[in-house]
Design a protein that fits this description.
By secondary structure, this protein is mainly alpha-helical. The chain is built from 8 helices and 2 strands. It folds into 2 domains: 67 residues, Winged helix-like DNA-binding domain superfamily/Winged helix DNA-binding domain (Arc Repressor Mutant, subunit A); 85 residues, no CATH class.
Length: 180
Amino acid sequence: MYELTKEKKDAKMLASTNKKEVSMNLTNSQEEYLKTIYILSKTEKEIRVTDIAKKLKITKPSVNRAMKNLKDMQLLNYESYGKINLAKEGEMLAKEILKREDILKIFLTKILDINEEQAKKEAIAMKHAISQETEKKLEKFINKVLNLGDLECDYDENSEKCKNCIKITAKNRLNKDKKK
């Protein structure tokens, strides 16, 4: 790994202090655990340490330590060798983490025209460094540029159907603009 310059360290520290108050100063890995548990909860009946370890490609002892820490923070319910469930606040944070990542990914793919794979990697890295204010302004900018504000539906940021709908709508609008 490379060593961060003082400026980059300061910027990273500033970004983490500017994050949403509700984020409880979570580490990047804690955010990834919450996100992973939330995603797994949508497809699995029960989530266990083994499932998380497989998904994140890490060891079970590492997951166990993280689960204990997140439990101590009251973000999830977990007993050793038992199933794992997000607490209400843990689920709320996981949704916020996913939203932040989605906003960045849409910006990178639809505004900057970066390919999906690269945009996904960069959105995951960037989501840890932006403040709530930046996130909101970026979301407003995307909605304005892609003209998403006129969608008349019950948009749910966590619904795969809605995500695809917005992507298709945005892509169609961008293609129309390019032809003009």
